[in-house]
């Protein structure tokens, strides 16, 4: 082990295309329509992002019935069920659907498999907003499988007509173990047409796997309700890091973590702005960890267009985003 204190900085890290699209959607809505703009649930699972948008006039609510009739509401990146959309319509709400297009893809899979009368095994965490939204597309056909150990309790109508789909932000390894056990129980289990775990989740896990064996400590920046951030801690430990902790911000770092630590890994979940990582790097530099080496395993350039409802209004007003840069969201949602 090197005698020099150093930081191994994971890349990719932080914002994915779906998160960027959702956050920018709320920012643009506030600029264009003015405050307040209501948002159902947290637009993304990050305390800093939610607090910052709240200061600018976003009002976060749990359900659409908390939004004044006829007002404007943004659906979060995690997606919503048809029942939520129907509730919004009943209240004459103007909706902006900021669901990540990769989540929308899973919703469409659920609809299609239900139409073909499959039992749909949704691998994901019960109660997570994304899982609730996906399951709500076909509640009579979907059952949630929380973990590999939950497979024993799965009961289906016809073992010959079973398919699995998944939450987009899971541990790749744990999901594949769940699928392995499901296939052992249901040998004709069908796969989704393409991988449901999103590219950003996979890329961040791969980067952590690469740096973790060389780290005494891995710090993951991300909120407690961010599934992909929590998974990164698990991945770091499984890949060989001596210790790993999740924090929302640098102020939560504990000095006691650094006893005997020479190499610190740093990464962040897909809903974390880079400013929070920069704060952690400054904290570490002040304590002698001023050598930073980037560990890159992929380069991401995927971008999504803004939600159609917002894009139409911005275009009509002549204020549609220009092309170029991180704020150029140039790919239409699926």
UniProtKB/TrEMBL annotation:
Dimethylallyl diphosphate binds at residues 45, 78, 128, 226-228, 271. Residues 315-334 are annotated as: Disordered. The keyword Iron applies. GO terms for biological process: dimethylallyl diphosphate biosynthetic process; isopentenyl diphosphate biosynthetic process, methylerythritol 4-phosphate pathway; terpenoid biosynthetic process. GO terms for molecular function: 4 iron, 4 sulfur cluster binding; 4-hydroxy-3-methylbut-2-enyl diphosphate reductase activity; metal ion binding. The active site is at 130 (proton donor). [4Fe-4S] cluster binds at residues 16, 100, 198. Its cofactor is [4Fe-4S] cluster. Its EC number is 1.17.7.4. It holds the Pfam family LYTB. It comes from the Bacteria. Pathway: Isoprenoid biosynthesis; dimethylallyl diphosphate biosynthesis; dimethylallyl diphosphate from (2E)-4-hydroxy-3-methylbutenyl diphosphate: step 1/1; Isoprenoid biosynthesis; isopentenyl diphosphate biosynthesis via DXP pathway; isopentenyl diphosphate from 1-deoxy-D-xylulose 5-phosphate: step 6/6. It is an enzyme of class 1 (oxidoreductase). Keywords: 4Fe-4S, Iron, Iron-sulfur, Isoprene biosynthesis, Metal-binding, Oxidoreductase. HAMAP family: IspH. Catalyzes the conversion of 1-hydroxy-2-methyl-2-(E)-butenyl 4-diphosphate (HMBPP) into a mixture of isopentenyl diphosphate (IPP) and dimethylallyl diphosphate (DMAPP). Acts in the terminal step of the DOXP/MEP pathway for isoprenoid precursor biosynthesis. Belongs to the IspH family. This is 4-hydroxy-3-methylbut-2-enyl diphosphate reductase.
């Amino acid at each position: 082990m090197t005698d020099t204190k150093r930081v191994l900085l994971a890349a990719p890290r932080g914002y994915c295309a779906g998160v960027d699209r959702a956050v920018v959607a709320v920012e643009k809505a506030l600029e264009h329509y003015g405050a307040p703009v209501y948002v159902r649930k947290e637009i993304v699972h990050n305390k800093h992002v939610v607090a910052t948008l709240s200061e600018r006039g976003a009002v976060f609510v749990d359900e659409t019935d908390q939004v004044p009739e006829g007002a404007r509401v943004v659906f979060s990146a995690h997606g919503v069920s048809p029942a939520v959309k129907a509730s919004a319509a009943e209240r004459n709400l103007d909706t902006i659907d900021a669901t990540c297009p990769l989540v929308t893809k899973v919703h469409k899979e659920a609809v299609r498999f239900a139409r073909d009368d499959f039992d749909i095994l949704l691998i994901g965490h019960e109660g997570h907003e994304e899982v609730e939204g996906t399951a709500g597309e076909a509640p009579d056909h979907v059952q949630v499988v929380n973990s590999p150990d939950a497979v024993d309790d799965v009961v289906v109508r016809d073992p010959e007509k079973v398919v699995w789909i998944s939450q987009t932000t899971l541990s790749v390894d744990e999901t594949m173990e769940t699928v392995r056990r499901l296939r052992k129980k249901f040998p004709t289990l069908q796969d989704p047409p393409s991988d449901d775990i999103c590219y950003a989740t996979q890329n961040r896990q791969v980067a952590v796997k690469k740096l973790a064996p060389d780290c005494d400590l891995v710090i993951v920046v991300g909120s407690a309700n961010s599934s992909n951030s929590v998974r990164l801690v698990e991945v770091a430990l499984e890949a060989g890091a001596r210790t790993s902790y999740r924090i929302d911000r640098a102020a939560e770092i504990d000095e006691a973590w650094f006893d005997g630590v020479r190499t610190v890994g740093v990464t962040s979940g897909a809903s974390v702005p880079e400013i929070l990582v920069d704060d952690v790097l400054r904290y570490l530099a002040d304590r002698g960890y001023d050598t930073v080496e980037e560990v890159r395993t992929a380069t991401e350039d995927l971008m999504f267009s803004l939600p159609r409802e917002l894009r139409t209004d911005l275009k009509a007003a002549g204020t549609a985003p220009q092309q170029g840069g991180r704020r150029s969201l140039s790919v239409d949602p699926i």
